[in-house]
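Here is the promised in-class demo. Please do not try to memorize the tokens; focus on the logic of going from shape to residues.
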């Protein structure tokens, strides 16, 4: 059993992923589209070493849902990325969705737990991405020296412009953060490589983009402690003090979740907004790391309450930050 499969099994528990399971993950459906909450570890498309993928389930999925015909993929998600996946039910709907993607008016919002905290609380990452050969093999990388270069130069180098907006929702000192990310362009692995190389804050559980070599993600001791990791003694030397082994770190799942999708003016001129609950392991990690997606709002609410309380009493409000 590969580590990837073992990690998926640990993240999913005893859940059996099949077409019937997929029907329980439908978030939205009308005559044009179906939106499902894809689980972590399920490949969308077939490939080398893939025994079962989401597209293999769509025929049976359509039968169970009594759709009349098999829905088609409108876009893709990484195998280890959980969250919103859009399917179209008719050729007309597929064309309409494709036009929205081309115009870049479709809005996608992701949540990610990162190792480290970005320098700025919000901003835009605008660094070209493309393929490159590294020590660990071929993968997507960024090229800062290509920032601002014409498309002809980028194309010649095998790169494309890539933009990702980000906002820090919460942090735990300097150890980790919960980010909200919105890809403006939609390139392969864009969010993961922008977080790792653009912000210098790789996504937790991203064993591919955390370093140039193939190895389980290296994590600071404090973060390992917050995640409640326990050292394991060597089988060859039981007297040795327990250590956190690389294979333990390799079992941390990718903490990247496609949380929200907005289809502009799609339903009789109205926006369709769909939100997908994050996986159990994602929620458990947030609790362990003491990260809360609404921390800023909670703090602001307390400040505002104190401000108006003092104002009503006729006392000074100068000490209340931001007022």
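The designed amino acids, position by position:
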């Amino acid at each position: 059993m590969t580590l990837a499969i073992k990690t998926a099994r640990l993240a999913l528990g005893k859940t059996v992923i099949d077409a019937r399971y997929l029907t329980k993950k439908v978030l939205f459906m009308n005559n044009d589209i179906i939106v499902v909450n894809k689980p972590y570890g399920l490949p969308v498309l077939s490939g080398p070493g893939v025994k079962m993928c989401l597209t293999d389930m769509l025929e049976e999925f359509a039968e169970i849902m009594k759709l009349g015909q098999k829905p088609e993929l409108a876009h893709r998600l990484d195998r280890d990325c959980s969250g919103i996946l859009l399917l179209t039910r008719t050729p007309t709907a597929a064309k309409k969705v494709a036009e929205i993607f081309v115009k870049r008016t479709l809005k996608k919002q992701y949540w990610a737990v990162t190792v480290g905290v970005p320098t700025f609380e919000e901003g835009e990452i605008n660094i070209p991405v493309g393929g490159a050969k590294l020590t660990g093999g071929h993968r997507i990388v960024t090229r800062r020296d290509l920032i601002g270069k014409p498309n002809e130069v980028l194309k010649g180098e095998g790169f494309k412009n890539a933009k990702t907006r980000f906002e820090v929702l919460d942090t735990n000192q300097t150890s980790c953060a919960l980010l909200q990310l919105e890809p403006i362009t939609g390139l392969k692995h864009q969010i993961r490589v922008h977080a790792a190389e653009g912000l210098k804050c790789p996504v937790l559980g991203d064993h591919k983009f955390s370093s140039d070599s193939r190895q389980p993600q290296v994590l600071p001791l404090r973060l390992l402690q917050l995640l409640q990791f326990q050292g394991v003694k060597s089988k060859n030397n039981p007297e040795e003090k327990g250590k956190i082994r690389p294979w333990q770190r390799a079992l941390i799942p990718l903490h990247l979740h496609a949380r929200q999708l907005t289809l502009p003016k799609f339903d009789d001129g109205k926006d369709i907004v769909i939100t997908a609950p994050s996986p159990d392991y994602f929620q458990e990690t947030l609790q362990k790391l003491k990260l809360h997606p609404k921390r800023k709002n909670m703090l602001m609410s307390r400040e505002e309450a104190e401000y108006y309380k003092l104002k009503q009493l006729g006392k000074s409000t100068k000490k209340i930050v931001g007022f």
